[in-house]
Design a protein that fits this description.
Shape: globular
Number of domains: 1
Radius of gyration: 22 Å
Strand content: over 45%
Strand order of the largest sheet: 1-2-3-4-5-6-7-8-9-10-11-12-13-14-15-16
Largest sheet: 16 strands, antiparallel, barrel
CATH superfamily: Porin
Number of strands: 16
CATH architecture: Beta Barrel
Helix content: under 10%
Order of helices and strands: HEEEEEHEEEEEEEEEEE
């Protein structure tokens, strides 16, 4: 897999170089850009019986993007760090899409890309500002999803329309909409149950830097394999000989979600908050290799989950040093007895526009643990190119 990723990047780079050299003759392909980033990390976790203290390469990505026949924007992005043991960390295709952008009010995107759900999901992991995306976005937007879907970095395969409407006197758009139809299986996977996910959002921008939005998502999580037959109370049904009765085929679990979001990002300040609610069961085991056939449902986890976060990134030295704080809550059963809360403070220091050093302390309260309180420390050195 590493060889395939390397060869793909080499081919893309050669294509980029060739296209740039022939720009005057080949007007069809233009504005080609090669970019990427590296995120290195040190993290300490003081959870009882699971203490850890390690350096880590959080993420390495490389991308090519450009324009085709002026009206089309395209992008291909690979994540190249990790190993081949599972889909979550092995070298893999992350983005591969094209978007028709002739009209500002109506654009069409097709391929593999970010799901149009929440403000935080589509943000760059460096400029997002913290040691990771918020818990509710991670669990309810397709990163490490509660349904058991393989890790997909908030992405899926599908088609989306979006646009900006209603300009004010200064020429700033006041309304944005986006809606897409997706397989519902995450990255690099075909549909399994022939049901599609429909995801959409709308937001208003009454003043510069402020946006207030709402999002909706309806669809399914599906898997092909075998599962234990259960009764109405989720008790396992047995055959006459005492063995567990099983069923094989495609199992599809309904999924319905909504989110409310608000963000102010202007004058070097960022203040953002989002609430997400999810309804629908998940599978007992998460997909890793993509070949699992265990379709049992995790009824014990319930069919409701929600989460809320609020954060602020404030300038200490403009464009260079920032203080940050985040309150991050996730309830895997939408009950306080299952809540996990992170209280985080830290700072980010930018060296130019391409290098960021981030440091963060977090106090964790996880009510599912016998000893719920522990500490985390995260330090990162991130480079964009």
């Amino acid at each position: 897999m590493k060889k395939i990723a390397s060869l793909a990047l080499a081919a893309l780079a050669l294509t980029s170089a060739s296209a740039q050299e022939n720009t005057p003759k080949l007007s069809v392909l233009s504005d080609i850009k090669f970019s990427g980033y590296v995120m290195s990390q040190y993290q300490y976790t003081g959870q009882d019986s699971k203490e850890s203290n390690s350096f880590n390469i959080r993420m390495v990505r490389m991308a090519l993007e450009g324009r085709l026949m002026k009206d089309f924007y395209w992008k291909v992005q690979l994540q190249v760090n990790g190993n081949t043991s599972d889909l979550g960390s092995s070298p893999r295709m992350v983005d591969a899409f094209a978007e028709w952008q002739k009209y500002e009010a109506f654009k069409i995107k097709a391929g593999q890309f970010k799901r149009p759900f929440t403000f935080e999901n589509p943000m760059h992991p460096i400029t997002q500002g913290f040691m990771g995306y918020s818990q509710n976005v991670s669990k309810l937007a397709g990163f490490s999803d509660r349904t058991g879907e393989h890790a997909s970095n908030g992405r899926d395969i599908g088609v989306q329309i979006q646009g900006d409407l209603i300009k004010n006197a200064a020429g700033r758009n006041l309304l944005h909409y986006q809606v897409g139809v997706f397989n519902g299986q995450g990255t690099n996977h075909k549909d399994v149950d022939q049901r599609k996910d429909v995801i959409g959002g709308i937001w208003v921008s009454p003043v510069k830097g402020l946006r207030i939005g709402a999002f909706g998502w309806t669809g399914s999580a599906a898997r092909k394999g075998t599962w234990d037959v259960t009764d109405a109370n989720h008790n396992v049904v047995k055959n006459e000989d005492g063995s567990v009765k099983t069923h094989s085929g495609v199992r599809s679990l309904s999924k319905n979600r909504y989110a409310f979001s608000a963000e102010y990002a202007a004058n070097d300040w960022t203040v953002r908050s989002e609430y997400i609610h999810s309804q629908g069961y998940g599978f007992t085991k998460s997909l890793t290799s993509g070949k699992e056939t265990d379709c049992n449902v995790n009824y014990a986890a319930g069919d409701q989950a929600d989460g809320f976060y609020a954060l602020m990134i404030a300038p200490v030295i403009s464009k260079k040093l920032y203080a940050k704080a985040r309150y991050d809550l996730y309830r895997p059963r939408a009950e306080w007895g299952t809540s996990r809360t992170q209280y985080e403070i830290g700072a980010n220091y930018w060296i130019g526009k391409s290098i960021m050093i981030g440091a963060e302390y977090a106090r964790i309260n996880d009510r599912s643990l016998a000893k719920p309180d522990y500490n985390m420390i995260d330090v990162e050195f991130d480079v964009k190119f």
